[in-house]
Amino acid sequence: MISVNIISGIIIIGAILAIALRVLAFSGLPLKKNSVLDPLLAKKIQQQSFTATNRETFAVFGISLLFRIAVFIISIFAIFLLADKEFTFSNLLDTYMQWDAKNYFRIATGGYSFYVENGEFPTLAFFPLYPWIIKAMNIFVQDMTLSGLIVSFLAYSGACSYMYKLMSLDYNKQTAIRAIVFMSVYPHALFFGTMMNESMLLFTSMATLYYIRRHDWVKAGVFGALASMSRLAGIVLIVPAAVEWIEHYEIISLFRKKSFAKVWQLFYKKALWIVLMFLGTFVYLACNYHTTGEWFKFLEYQEMFWHNDTVYWGKSLSTILQYAGNEKSFTLFAIWLPELISIIFVATLLIYGIRRTRNLYTAFLVVYMIINMSMSWPLSIARYMTCAIPAFMILSDFSERHKWTEHLITATMAITFGIYFTAYFMSRQIL
Fold this sequence. Notes:
The protein is mostly helical. It contains 21 helices and no strands.
């Protein structure tokens, strides 16, 4: 679909250019005033920040953990009410062993060489941090599936705590709490409580964004490395880190003043820590090499087992539209419509937020969209968008400005969450 390619290209590239102009202007590049640039380059109206005390942060963690436990308990009713199974704890845990969860289980059990299919190692398509932590947790729990769920619960709760702290730097308390609620009841947020990687990516990404925003570059580099060891998308955190470094220290202004020594000092004392984020990806590539003798073997496995290759994002969107328009089975509602709606949802918030949100957040959001939409067989975009962190921040900010939308958004998301939550445990293709 040529029109889809063109329209999506205009939106994404337009967003990139708008963000780039804002970063350059805020870092000291003088741009001639005119009626087009003035609104774009206007500083966002900032809400009153607040102090996120340790007590409040721990409370957010505790409430988030209780929420995940409550959802887990509700899943017992969903599983045994709708499925013809004997009521045992083992059967309950087996129900959580769906789709990619099996591969994380295999890695945690015996590493990347544990599972072999026709002489190949398909689990190399999955990043190592989450299963490694599951393996460590299992030393105490002695049940790999339960260990995986506990790690997911704790990582999600930690992410909520970091989101509260992150938003305290730029937003009021109500906006922060609302963003956590929106993120938690997003339809595919059910994966934060399963044996899947979403909670780990969410936690490491949220912590990285927090330390970037605080200009604590050492911790940003460390958590960024962990994020890039969680999933390929984790490496895009380098972009918001670079944006904040350029903008906060007004690097363009320093270049214009020929303060090259100052720029070099800021680079090797501050920005060089950002490069640490590549370490996580290197560890993953090293796992590929150790298992197969090839650094990028995972790319071959993505194509071999999941029919996935890197493509222009417009082509991926065309594929989704094609299936959404022609599919008549339940997969229309399980896969293709959620994919399409999630893309529209995040893209709309990106456009809305460009002038109202810090550039590091919109920069992260646009590159996160690109890397997750650039797949030839896009089956899990709706799930991936659970970790599109700035989207929930922007949505909460929008709801703060338009109070009447809060309950409507929350109710709509929560009801849809319940539907997909139930369908997942009925083994529908909620991927």
